[in-house]
Write a structure and sequence with these properties.
The chain is an alpha+beta fold. Helices cover 38% and strands 12% of the residues. Strands 1-5-4-2 form a 4-stranded mixed β-sheet. Strands 3-6 form a two-stranded antiparallel sheet. Strand 7 (201-205) and strand 8 form a beta hairpin.
Length: 252
């Protein structure tokens, strides 16, 4: 890991460097991501992780579960991309995941180290992640739970936005932060397709004078027993109920 990445994985992201391993380091129980993001895999997620939430609305179960995968792929894949101009091999057919007893993702497993980016333009550098990792995973999660794909892209967007804001605090990461900011202002990417991470959050000043991010799309976690609205929910009634983010996810 480069010095820049080592410095990044401190503070709020401390320990994220240990969430990435190669297959020779992974336990035998690791899943192939392609098997997890399948009808059988999603059924396991809804059944076993859903039990943690009294088998509530499966759309909300999937939304909450998705945050662990989306957070890890952001804090590893996007961090490598922006800070080192390198692409981690996170395409689902090549990726593995280490799961806990509750089906939450504890770590990502990759075949090899990262490789240099082929195209470093903001409109092109994230296409492999969108096309080969997030796109098929989100399509699968939406298909097997009924949740709207845009809610899952919104889950991803809050992590990308959070990571970019952390980069702004690192003097040596300003170019990466600027690229990340530009990525989130593009309506279209280099392949001509709509950018699913276009302006994923709004930033507004709260009563204390601090700038807070507000999601554009609700993650519907409030449909699960005892959770309520998250701290950056866009719903007008979010102030009625506030709850802590899910455990083990940075800024969840």
């Amino acid at each position: 890991m480069s010095v820049s990445l080592t410095r990044l994985y401190a503070g709020p992201l401390k320990g994220m460097d240990r969430k990435l391993m190669t297959w020779d380091q992974a336990p035998e129980t690791a899943w192939r991501a392609q098997d997890l993001f399948s009808r059988r895999g999603m059924a396991h997620v809804i059944q076993r992780y859903g039990a943690e939430h009294q088998h509530g609305d499966c759309r909300a179960v999937m939304s909450l579960w998705s945050k662990y995968f989306l957070a890890l792929t952001t804090y590893t894949g996007v961090a490598h991309n922006l800070l080192a101009d390198r692409q981690l091999p996170l395409a689902l057919p090549r990726l593995g995941v280490v799961l806990g007893e509750d089906m939450l993702i504890d770590a990502l497993v990759v075949e090899e180290t990262s490789s240099p980016l082929v195209d470093t333009r903001a409109e092109a550098r994230f296409l492999p992640l969108i096309r080969d990792t997030w796109g098929p995973a989100i399509t699968c999660m939406a298909h097997h739970s009924g949740i709207a794909p845009r809610a899952l892209w919104s889950n991803l967007g809050q992590y990308v936005d959070y990571l970019v804001r952390q980069l702004h605090a690192l003097p040596e990461a300003q170019s990466g932060a600027a690229l990340g900011e530009r990525w989130m202002t593009l309506r279209e990417l280099a392949d001509g397709q709509r950018n699913p991470l276009f302006q994923p959050v709004r930033h507004r000043e709260n009563a204390e004078g601090d700038i807070e991010p507000i999601r554009r799309v609700c993650c519907i976690r409030y449909l699960l027993p005892g959770l309520g609205y998250c701290g950056n929910c866009p719903l007008a009634c979010r102030e009625k109920t506030e709850a802590q983010p899910p455990r083990r996810v940075a800024n969840g």
